[in-house]
Amino acid sequence: MSAVARQTPAPAALDVERIRADFPILSEVRVHGKPLVYLDNGASAQMPRQVIERLVRYQTREHANIHRGVHYLSALATDAYEAARATVRRFLHAREDREIVFTSNVTDAINLVAHGYGRAFLGEGDEIVITHMEHHANIVPWQMLCEEKGAKLRVAPIDDAGEVVMEEYGRLFNPRTKFVSVTHVSNALGTINPVREMIAIAHRHGVPIMIDGAQAVQHMPIDVQSLDCDFYAFTGHKLFGPTGVGVLYGKAALLEKMRPFRGGGDMILSVAFEKTTYNTIPFKFEAGTPPIAQAIALASAIDYVQQVGLERIAAHERELLRHATESLRAIDGVRIIGTAREKAAVLSFYVGDVHPHDVGTLLNDDGIAVRTGHHCAQPVMQRYGIPATARASFAFYNTLDEVDKLAASVRRVQKLFG
Fold it and tell me: Angle 29-34-39 (CA atoms, 0-180°, nearest 5)?
């Protein structure tokens, strides 16, 4: 063997212009007469033409309610819906299709686990561990559970860079710790948490752990078996799919033990006034008519992303983040909030004494869409002593030229406010 170590070849560069041609909104929408620069992907990403066409095809040629129908359209829709479940299973590298539950979004998935698992297995004096960087969706359901059960919420701190202080995280575990729920990627800071290590620590203490992957699956490959997480959740509209659909992965053994969160049709095997028998997983968690069209379109979005290649996407987004970070750091008075060593393509910033809402309004005048506010992460804002930030979040269809436009617009903001 050669003495020269073999290196993994870098992923081929993306043909961004070809990719952009798949997203009609990027060329068809103008803002104040200027081309749209869409940098709000962390809130909701755009859908490619292929996903839109799949959604329309279902609505125009395949639409019917699923399961139990014996007619042609019902069978067609059922097959497409269950094929979508299989696509998600492969995407997450889950063991079985029945470990994939369709929800309405990540918030719904977290609530499902908080109620379905938490209500059954947590009691007075038990403790739940989260981090200081969580989205409200990964705080409030656990607070509600704690209030109901007399349990306690424990919070792992973050440092000035926006990284979890892992020593403190480890110290939170004790015999009363019964559950952990942490974000994979911070929506407000872009921090990529060391979830593999966090999962291992939880499991050393015999504690199940849930990962909020809303900001992760669009940026990096996910293998839930390799991570060994107990639950993982993501949402469709941040993964270039439609709104109204999300996914909860759960280990089959845990899902089987859990109580259904909602009652109604399709989650039962039999109903009598004396007793109801629940359906098998995953169906016992999918009460009523599920998001059929959205789930089918989500599968199309997953196919699209995998065809582009998540490694190639990650490499392109790292370059966008690098260039954006350097460009904004070069502007006097701009403060970047969240400087973790490992970050996804999210850049939150503060411009002097200018309120982020004013920053966002002026950027919009230049056709640039960013998110402003506390990003449903008020504890993060309190940690940094600020009311809000402006947040640019990038996707694989964004370009370095768009980053330059962002920097130029921020300079205009600074100039206007002196």
Answer: 70
Give the rounded distance of the alpha carbon of 290 from its chain centre. Answer: 20
Domains of the chain by residue range: 16-40+309-416, 51-307
Q: Name residue, tokens 């029945």.
A: 98
Q: What is the DSSP string of 340-388?
A: -SSB-SEEEEEETTB-HHHHHHHHHHTTEE-EEE-TT-HHHHHHHT-S-
376: annotated active-site residue? yes
Phi, psi of 369, deg, nearest 5: -100, 115
* Active-site annotation holder among 155, 376, 386, 400: 376
Beta-bridge partner residues of 191? 343
- DSSP of 278-298: EPPTTGGG--SS--HHHHHHH
CATH 3.40.640.10 fits domain 51-307? yes
pTM: 0.95
Q: Specify whether the CB–CB gap between 232 and 224 falls below 8 A.
A: yes
Name the CATH topology of 16-40+309-416: Aspartate Aminotransferase, domain 1 (3.90.1150)
207-241: pLDDT as tens digits: 999 999 999 999 999 999 999 999 999 999 999 99
Q: Quote the CA–CA distance of 344 and 295 in Å, as a whole number.
A: 25
